């Protein structure tokens, strides 16, 4: 049965947890919705939801089913009638509005309208009333890109109608961070006639089966001392898990994570979050101090995990439980199942332990991930990363007018584009709390920084410089397509 969309207030918990971004920052098994929870309250340009009818399957000429897809618009800065339109792409999480981040600053500067489309299946844009594996078959980046194209046409047409004109074309520019950053790059690649350019922030454009660089980057970001403390902690945890797993799980409030891999994954992610979102000191300071003082590293790590990962970020430990991921009901935790499905079918990014010198447990390996895919979604579900990279080009993406940005401490940057060219500039923001999507949110990446204020970055200048370059690129590309509203170049 097709579903007409959940009521917006289906869950107050959802509102508390998912307040932040449409291009969700999280990815991986740092599930999309954990970041930034309560901090983000009231940080929207708008949360007034709008709806339109989207095609369910863009690739079948016989299937004309539709579903309701949610979007938002913010017109306060719009230079009527010919200002640009900024489309903020929804990623792997609920989209509760248009965030007041650096894109808001750009919108003021360029006199732009801002619209944002929730990603199919996530949040209220859910085509079916259950998330069975069978129902998930229309969940893919390819369908999502086509959604954006169809939405762009719909929105341009309705704007034209509002402005009493026909055939008008405003210059469009697309934005996204993380997975949505990859969509932003891929959109410009596949639909170059529909956008003047794209900003692809921390864009994970390379599908990777065994993503060992991820763990290596954590080691690099941590520095020698903290890395050693983290590695020792992992060893102690592995030993305890073998001898008294029940007691160990209890220390971490993770009694339900009976599969060792699930438990160890949870503990690995908890460390990642500190680096990914620009708060390395929250983890490294207490751990290094404890090591120097000869204190119990596992106890200190457990305190960090519970207070910071579970407390501040609001992660629900259950989402690491494969049994829990099997649930097909739609609720505030559905994003985890949905994102795992995308991972298990298209992009992988399996954050496995490198064979040498890893921080995470070596039990978090390829087999763990493949077993999870099969266990949660059924036989035959595994990611064909070669096909994905064949389709989009990976880091050899043959696009143009795409800006890539990365944060130096972000483990995800190794799935992003490595090299820079005039047509596809790539900028690295370097500082010791520069993480995922720093260009859009400032650092530490917390929505308490309205308009992505860069003040809290350890090198605000590094962020500022990259933002200036982004503006210059946008200025040029928008001017090049202002006459036609299109760019085929
Ligand atoms: C979407 O489809 C429904 C049901 O077919 C229809 O009632 C509604 O008017 C449509 N909405 C728009 C915005 O076209
Ligand atoms: C569009 O036309 C309608 C009817 O002619 C008029 O009421 C409205 O003010 C016009 N809108 C704009 C933006 O010109
Ligand atoms: C393993 O890692 C250590 C520390 O980084 C390094 O010194 C050593 O050469 C590595 N060994 C192999 C086999 O790569
Ligand atoms: C940002 O810096 C201000 C002081 O400059 C501080 O009060 C605030 O807590 C910081 N925010 C974060 C998220 O660290
Ligand atoms: C993987 C990585 O670090 N990506 C790149 C981000 O952008 C800078 C600037 O072009 C590159 O030097 C990095 O290699």
Automatic annotation (TrEMBL):
It comes from the Eukaryota. Keywords: Glycoprotein, Hydrolase, Protease, Signal. This is Serine protease EDA2. InterPro entries: AB_hydrolase_fold, Peptidase_S28, Ser_carbopepase_S28_SKS. GO terms for cellular component: vacuole. Residues 1-28 form the signal peptide. One of its GO terms (molecular function) is serine-type exopeptidase activity. Gene3D superfamilies: alpha/beta hydrolase, Serine carboxypeptidase S28, SKS domain. Belongs to the peptidase S28 family. It comes from Vicia faba (Broad bean). One of its GO terms (biological process) is proteolysis. It holds the Pfam family Peptidase_S28.
């Amino acid at each position: 049965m097709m579903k007409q969309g959940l009521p917006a207030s289906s869950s107050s918990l959802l509102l508390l947890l998912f307040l932040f971004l449409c291009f969700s920052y999280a990815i991986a098994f740092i599930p999309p919705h954990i970041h930034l929870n309560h901090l983000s309250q009231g940080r929207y340009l708008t949360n007034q939801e709008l709806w339109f009818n989207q095609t369910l399957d863009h690739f079948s000429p016989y299937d004309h089913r539709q579903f309701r897809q949610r979007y938002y618009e913010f017109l306060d800065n719009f230079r009527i009638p010919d200002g640009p339109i900024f489309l903020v792409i929804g990623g792997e999480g609920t989209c509760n509005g248009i965030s007041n981040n650096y894109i808001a600053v750009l919108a003021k500067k360029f006199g732009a309208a801002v619209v944002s489309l929730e990603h199919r299946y996530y949040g209220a844009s859910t085509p079916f009333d259950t998330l069975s594996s069978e129902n998930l078959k229309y969940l893919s980046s390819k369908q999502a890109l086509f959604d954006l194209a169809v939405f762009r046409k719909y929105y341009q047409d309705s704007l034209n109608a509002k402005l009493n004109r026909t055939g008008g074309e405003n210059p469009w520019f697309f934005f996204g961070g993380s997975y949505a950053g990859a969509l932003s790059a891929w959109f410009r690649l596949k639909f170059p006639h529909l956008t003047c350019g794209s900003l692809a922030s921390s864009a994970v454009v390379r599908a990777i089966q065994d993503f060992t660089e991820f763990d290596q980057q954590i080691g690099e970001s941590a520095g020698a001392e903290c890395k050693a403390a983290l590695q020792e902690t992992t060893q102690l945890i592995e030993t305890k898990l073998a001898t008294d797993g029940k007691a160990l799980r209890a220390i971490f409030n993770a009694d339900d994570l009976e599969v060792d891999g699930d438990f160890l994954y949870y503990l690995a992610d908890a460390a990642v979050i500190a680096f990914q979102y620009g708060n390395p000191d929250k983890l490294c300071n207490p751990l290094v101090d404890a090591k120097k003082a000869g204190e119990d590293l596992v106890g200190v790590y457990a305190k960090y995990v519970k207070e910071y990962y579970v407390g501040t970020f609001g992660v629900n430990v259950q989402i690491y439980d494969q049994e829990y991921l099997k649930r097909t009901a739609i609720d505030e935790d559905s994003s985890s199942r949905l994102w795992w499905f995308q991972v298990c079918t298209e992009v992988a990014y399996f954050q496995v332990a490198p064979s040498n010198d890893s921080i995470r447990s070596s039990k978090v390996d390829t087999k763990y991930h493949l077993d999870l895919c099969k266990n949660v979604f059924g036989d035959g579900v595994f990611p064909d990363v070669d096909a994905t990279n064949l389709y989009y080009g990976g880091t050899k993406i043959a696009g143009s007018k795409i800006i890539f940005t990365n944060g130096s401490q972000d483990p995800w940057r190794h799935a992003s584009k490595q090299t820079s060219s005039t047509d596809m500039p790539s900028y690295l923001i370097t500082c010791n709390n520069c993480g995922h999507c720093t260009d859009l949110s400032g650092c530490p990446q917390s929505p308490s920084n309205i308009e992505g204020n860069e003040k809290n970055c350890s090198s605000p200048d590094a962020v500022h410089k990259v933002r200036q370059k982004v503006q210059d690129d946008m200025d040029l590309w928008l001017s090049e397509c202002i006459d036609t509203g299109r760019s085929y170049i």
